[in-house]
Amino acid sequence: MATQAAEKPTTWRTEPRAVDALDAALKANPQAMPVHPEKWDVSRSDIYVEDRWQPIFAEMRAAGDLHKIENSPYGPHWNVVSHKAIQHIEALPELYSSSWEYGGITILDRMDDAQLEELGRERFELPMFIAMDRPKHTGQRRTVAPKFTPSAMAGMDDEIRQRTGELLDSLPRGEVFDWVDKVSIELTTGMLAILFDFPWKDRRLLTFWSDWAGDTEIALVRELDDQRMDILREMAAYFQQLWIERANKEPGPDLISMMIHSPAMNQMDPQEFMGNLVLLIVGGNDTTRNTMSGIIHAFDKFPDQRKLFEEDPSLIPNAVQECIRYQTPLAHMRRTATEDSELFGQTVKAGEKLILWYLSANRDETVFENADKLDITRENARRHLAFGYGIHRCVGARLAEMQLRILLEEMHKRRMRVHVAGDVERVRANFVHGFRKLEVEITEF
């Protein structure tokens, strides 16, 4: 990557959190968020923060595999809601593109030059390999993939287990605390810091950046979107220093060194570098973090399943898959049609965007019996689409599974039972599906 030395600010900001900034904007101006006039426009964030999205998707699935939304704040799009339709689309990456040049992987619209000029804004795009088509996608994915092979991760098992055990042993007993902050964020942020060989004292910056990068609702509030761009530029400046430091050293096993010494990635421009950082941070942080919280919430909601876990630890590997299915930490991905096509009885025109609602696919009644119930003995739990499908399936899926498995194993070893004992606050977002706060108390079984 062509770089220039970046001046590091005296202190790196870690406030305000993205969720707090959005809350403050909505409180100051309740009209800041646009209206959603169509009943099946599931891009609205209130249905996720209030956890009432399930019947809306069920109604759509009963009516068909995909449905056109004409009038949405994010522009017209197709809601793809069935398991088979999402698999079909993801299996045809040339016909249904992920490329940032068409708009990328989220529901956000790509503004044309005239719209940008009208708003007085410059184009700000973050190319990343998940938002690229072949062949460029292939080369960049191959650069980081060796970090997530079974042999590479075998060496991480002991370290993850030690860190997880030490953290669980440090948790307070007999008092209520926030599981999201003390466990989910700490474990996943620590894992990211290890993968990047990131300065340990600054590791919470990774959480801060992840939250600002992954919240699509912020883009609808002009001042917050401007703030996000500033924060992401600060992130890029920090990582640019790490890049410069490591470019002059022997190749190391961390992700930054792997990118530096890869012909597919070492000539990235600054925005592409920033985009791939966002991908790795959000992909490695928000997803595992929110499933770690989702497991606790689901076990509390379905105590019969918690009892099965406590009685039979051999169920843990399958419980991990079922909890990922049940939580689905990323609600959607987006594709754009590159040419006209017939899709499950509908005509999709070139240039139209299709929103693949993983949340809905993982509750598809034709695939998962009693899909709204957690069932850690579910025989086909692995058929979930939470990691995507096809060439863009999550490159870090095995690592996420390993972290979740070790967490459950170490909890079981300590006979730890976690009760929801206070506030449960969900994230106000249509992309990241997770928890902002989960107040719990620990007992033993």
Automatic annotation (TrEMBL):
GO terms for molecular function: heme binding; iron ion binding; monooxygenase activity; oxidoreductase activity, acting on paired donors, with incorporation or reduction of molecular oxygen. It comes from the Bacteria. Keywords: Heme, Iron, Metal-binding, Monooxygenase, Oxidoreductase. It holds the Pfam family p450. InterPro entries: Cyt_P450, Cyt_P450_B, Cyt_P450_CS, Cyt_P450_sf. Gene3D superfamilies: Cytochrome P450. Signal peptide: none annotated. Belongs to the cytochrome P450 family. This is Cytochrome P450. It comes from Tsuneonella suprasediminis.
